[in-house]
Amino acid sequence: MDTNKPLLPVKSDFVFRLIFGDQRNVDILGAFLMAVLDMPEEEYGSLTIIDPYLKKEHTNDKYAILDIKLHTAYGSILHIEIQLRVLSDIRERTIYSQSKLVTEQMASGGKWSDIKKAISIVITDDVFVEEGDKYHHQFRYRTRDGIELTDLTEINCLDLRKLPDEDDSTDLWYWMKFIKSDNEEDMDMLASKSPQIAKAVKVLKELSADEQTRMLYENREMARRDYDSRVEEVERKWQGVIAEKDSALADKDAIIAQLKAQLGKSE
User: Fold this and answer.
1) Angle 26-36/195-209 helices, nearest 10 degrees?
2) d(CA 195, CA 31)
3) Contacts for 121 with CB less than 8 Å, ≥ 6 apart
4) What number of CA atoms fall less than 13 Å from residue 195's CA on the CB side?
5) Mean pLDDT of 219-224
6) Which of 54, 168, 244, 265 has the highest CB neighbour count under 10 A?
7) CA-to-CA distance for 100 and 72, rounded, in angstroms?
């Protein structure tokens, strides 16, 4: 392993999952979740990652978001994903994913009372929630005056772009800084904040020094860039179609106006 290699970016969904989505690192995941959520501490007593094995042979087949799903000690279902870009339909997509966490629980013959809490955590390297300057927003079913309908669903949005430069002495700020930064000095500072962050930094450095992991990451990044390029190409073509349609409509309006003017003269 080459320890002189630059650190891989944690905000890459591939690297993020290698660190937080590994059952061997469940203590890292638990500490991060405790910084984000306000669940009872007993919930974190046993965290089970669903499908903990990253299918490495498929990482460059096509670009798709790598997420993490897990169960807590009380059966709550958590879904975590990280996105570099905020697309225009991200809110609808997030609601759809959140709804599936609930509906997938209803097996044939199940009871409504069997539904467990479903929590989504969406981390973006962009601004998800434009309102205000907070970097963490929690959304639940509440009225304007704070009356809660249910606590069965919850969406947490973490905006890396809004993270202030100066720490606010919260565990969440330190974890967000860990995800956002790829600076070794920052990592060494963060490692002093808790045993779990120290372990996360150690895992990151090991991954960054591993040639196979770097190759998989680079293949993943190439697939992501290809995907973004295809999306941009489709958007350009669509804009071209719209422009042609607008031009045709303008020509039509001009012809109609000309005909009306000619009819007016003939009268």
Assistant:
1) 130
2) 10
3) 33, 36, 78, 79, 80, 81, 156, 158
4) 4
5) 82
6) 54
7) 17
Does 94 or 220 have the greater pLDDT score? Answer: 94
Decide if 228 contacts 236 (C-beta within 8 A).
no
**pLDDT tens digits, 42-72:** 999 899 998 766 555 444 445 566 789 999 9
Task: Compute the residue count for the chain.
Answer: 267
Q: Are 63 and 227 in contact (CB under 8 A)?
A: yes
CA distances from 78 to 43, 49, 69, 118, 185 (A): 12, 9, 6, 6, 32
At residue 82, φ and ψ (nearest 5 deg) are: -125, 135
Per-residue tokens: 35? 């910084």
**Residue 152 and residue 117: Cα distance in Å, rounded?**
4
Q: CA 157 → CA 67, 168, 214, 243, distances in Å?
A: 15, 18, 29, 36
The model's pTM is 0.81
The DSSP 8-state label assigned to residue 56 in this structure reads G
